[in-house]
Amino acid sequence: MPQQAGGSLPDALFSADSVRRIDQYVIEQLGVDGFDLMQSAARAAFRRLALRWPGTETLLVLCGAGNNGGDGYLIAANALRHGLTVHCVAVAPTEKLNGDARKAWQKATADGVKVRELAEFSEAELDSLIENAGLIVDAMLGTGASGAPREPFASVIARCNRSGLPMLAVDVPSGLNATTGAAKGEVVQASMTVTFIGRKAGLYTGQGAAACGDTVFESLSTAIKTGDIAENGENGESPIAMLQSWKSVQGWLPRRPANAHKGRFGHVLVVAGDRGFGGAGLLAAEAAARSGAGLVSLATRPEHVTAALARCPSVMVHGLTHGSELPSLLDAATVVVCGPGMGQGAWGQQMLQQVVESGKPRVLDADALNLLSSRVAVPANNQILTPHPGEAARLLNCLVPEVEADRLAAANKLQSLYGGAVLLKGAGTVISAGEAAVDIAGGSNPGMATGGMGDVLSGVIGAVYAQIIESPAQAATLGAVVHLEAASRASVEKGYMGLIATDVIDALPQVFREAESITGRREEEE
User: Fold this and answer.
1) 3-state secondary structure string across 357-383
2) Are 326 and 355 in contact (CB under 8 A)?
3) Of 81, 204, 291, 389, which has the maximum CB count within 10 A?
C-alpha cells in the first residue's frame, strides 16, 4: 500500500512456499551450506531461549522428521553444552531422518544428547516427562505442514498444551499453517516463536496471532553474509503482506499548519443507531471527534439526541425518522460512517440506500454490511468495508470457518467484489486494497473482545479517511493500527477484563499526540 514519509518501514511477510524458495536460493545460489544454516538457526533460537527464560534448568525438546526437527536436535546440543538438563524425544522415528536433519541428529548424539524414541514411552511416562520439564521446545512440524497434525503429533501437542508449561516454537508452532494463520486441528500454544530467513504471514493473523506468543525474527544474516535476504528482494520472491505497526504509520497524517481551521480536516457524518442501539452511533461519532476530524455529525433516531448531546456536545446531532431527511446532511459530509447499531429494518435500509446513492466516500460497518450482503455487489473505489469474520462470511455467501481458513484470501476476494479497501477484523486485522500485498495490523488485544470496539474503529477510520481522502487503503490501515495502539495503552491501566470501548476513545489523543511529534520533526527536516 502507498507509504508516506515518517515512521519506519513495515515488515515484509511471505508465504511458507516463498520462504522455502528463499532458503533454497541461499543454499544453491549464495553457496551457504545447508547444515551451517541449520546450526545458525539453532544457535539463534537457543540464544532467544536463554534471554527469555534465563533460569531454565530442564529442557524437553520434541523433534520431528524434517529440518524443523533438525533445528530441535541442534538446540538440544546447544542447551546441553550450556549446562541444562536436556530430554530429547524423537516424535518422528529417527530412521526417517535424512539430509541435514540426519546430520543434526548425528551431531547431537555425538555431543552427548540422549535421544529417545516416542515409542519407548508409555502414556504415563510421557506425561511425567512433560510435567517435570521446565520448558518445552517444539521442533515437531515446520512450515511444510498445512493440514491437521496426524498422530502421534496431535496427541503430543495436546499433552504439551495441557501442561501449562512455557513453550518455544521453532520457526512455526506445530499445527499452524504458516501462510494463512489457520489451524485445522491441534496447534502448539507457544509462549515465543523464533522464526527464520523470512517472516511468515500466518504467524501474524488468525490463530497464528495467539498460537505464536511473542514472535521474534532471526534473519540469520551472519550466516548468509548479505543482510536480510528476504527483505532486500534479491531472491526474487515477493511478499504477500506487509506488517504495519504504529511506528510504521505514524507519519501518514498530513501536518497541521499554524493557521489550520476545522474545514481542512473533513466533516464526518455518522449514520447509526436505530432504537435501542443509540450507543453504537455515539461511540463512532465520539471516536471520530477524538481522531482529528474537523467536524462530526451524527444522524440517529430522535430518541437518542438528548443523550448524545449530553455525552459529547462537540458532535452535531440530528434526529431522523426517515431516509428522505438524510440527503441534506450527506451534502455537507466529506466522509460517511454508516452502519453501527443501524439495524436491518426499514429505517436502516432507508439510511443505507441514501448513503450509497450519494456516492460519498464512506465507511460501511456492522448492519450496513449485513444489509449489503442481500444486495448485488456494486464496486466503489471510495468505500471502506470493515467486516468481522461473520459479516465477511455473509458477504461472501460462505461459512465463517472458510473465511478463517485463509483470511488474506477472504479479504482479497471481498475487495475484488466491492472495490475500495476491505478491512477484515480479528487478531491480525487484514486490509486489502486490490494490490499484490495486503496490510496486516500487527498485534492483538484480548481486552478488545467486548461490545462497541468495532463502532470505535469505524469512527477512527472515518476521521483519518476525511484527512487523507485520496487513499481509502491508507485510512483503513492507519485506523486499524491506531485503534489497536489506543487499546493497548488503555489496557495498561484498565487490564484486559475491564476494558470497554470508551477507554479506547479516551486513549486516542495520547496516541495521536505522538503522530503530531513525528509530523513536527518531519516539518523541521523539510
Assistant:
1) HHCCCEEECCHHHHHHCCCCCCCCCCE
2) yes
3) 291
